[in-house]
Give the backbone structure.
Amino acid sequence: MTDTAADTATGPVRVLAPFTVPIFRALWIAALVSNIGSWMQTVGAQWFMVEQNSPPLLIALVQTASAAPVLLLGIPAGVLGELLNRRGLLIWVQAAQVLISAGLVALTAAAEMTPYLLLVLTLLLGAASAVQLPAYEAISAEIVPTRMIPNAASLSAISVNLARAIGPAIAGLLLSSLGVAFVFAMNLASFAVFLIVLIGWRSYRPDPHQPERFIDATRAGVRYVTHSGVVRRLYVRLGLFVVPGSVLYALLPVLATDQLGLDSAGYGVLLAGLGVGSVAAAFFAPIVRDQIGPNHTVLISSALFGTGTVVVALSPSLALTLPVLAVVGAAWIGVVATLNGVVESFLPVWVRARGLSIYQMVLFGSLAVGAAVSGGVAGWAGTAITTAAAGIIVIVVTASQLLWPLLPTAEKKRPTAPFPLAPDQGADIDPQGLTLVLVRYDVPDVNRAAFVEQMRLVEHSRRRTGARTWTLYQDRESPGELVEVFGVGSWQEHLQQHTTRPTQYDDETIHAASALATTVDVHHLIQVGRTRIAFPASSTHIARHHHKKQENQP
């Protein structure tokens, strides 16, 4: 996708600005319809369990079955979303969801559905969703200008939570009049609508990318997240919030029936209250985020969510529970949508789908763990006590953010900044050959301490962009020379370190280290292939690719 004026303009971006992109608007509407159906499916599944007199653990496992597949499929799904045509991937996965939903409807209508069979089919739908999510989020970021990405993430949150407001209320009404099978059929229809929109979108042209092997691409995505302090801190904060925060959503059906004495329609009203607050927050959260920053937005929202959860757990009446649930729903979006928007806008283009897949793993994995644990604890300690305890844990987690806040991102410049590379000097290089890069720095004594400190940042930069190993050595014969040595999986991947993977922040980090040295000497050593590579006679074990640079480095 080429840059537009909106990419380079200054000033705040309107919340609804992504809707000016026609295909984003069409996909958003289709996703809204699909999300409404998914929430109707969730309510129908949970209420089916209630009607079958299932224990709290089995009811909570509906949420676990939806979320758990992300733990197994999240990273492979991110790689597929990076390497394959995203529209084609979405079409195939959406078609699979249509078929699974059709089977679910048929079995329920024929009175052949059981609680355990429902959990299996829910697990299959969760697996399809796990494969779909990274590609969908990455394609949403791909089709809007860069500056609109956080707002596109917020609008995606609006889609989910507007559905949460509408879907449960509709499901509650339909359950009492038309039954669970009809609710499942509505979800089937919503999947079909999204599939039709994807098939009709023929103008999609994916951004060009260099081919990568599946395993190498998987390792590169994990390596990037592992060595990106900003992303790592965001994911840890997300997990710490969602594990206890998910307890309220998992146990709300039991609270509705046992504590408030509500039927399916009343449960739908409670979920609608959550959804109304969520939708309001999705519109206003970007404005609040721009005013006070992501860190304070997450901090305040987490505190509100924890406090609201305790109140809901102890509330004896619908009149008190409903408005508090609206606040809780708004607070949930204040945390999740803010973290999601920061992650989407921070991740470089080359690793965005893989990074988002790990985000989804943390989010849905935390939902699955929280739901499973809460169901077991509630069966022993009681639903109200378990929910209240979860709210207190959220408050404690919020307090920890005062000590470990989110890391700032403004100074970490994200545009791609390719590094120049000297032309090959006659060597026939195997693109899959293991590559070892040696960078010799002649560092004056006065700069040595500052250089070693700067190289800590350089290490993370090298590892984020592809280095599997990294070490800084001192030359025994020339004590003033320090040698940086890092290994890359292949020459092809090292070329990507030069062209598609480095950001402007990486460029500035490496140049800051080079500026502390008087000379910089670079050597590339490439493993000799066993069959196809012919080298000069002097190169018996490694091919030596050598050049000198004063400023630009690998």
Remarks:
- The CA atoms of residues 235 and 359 lie 7 Å apart.
- The two ends are 26 Å apart (CA to CA).
- The chain is about 65% helix and 5% strand.
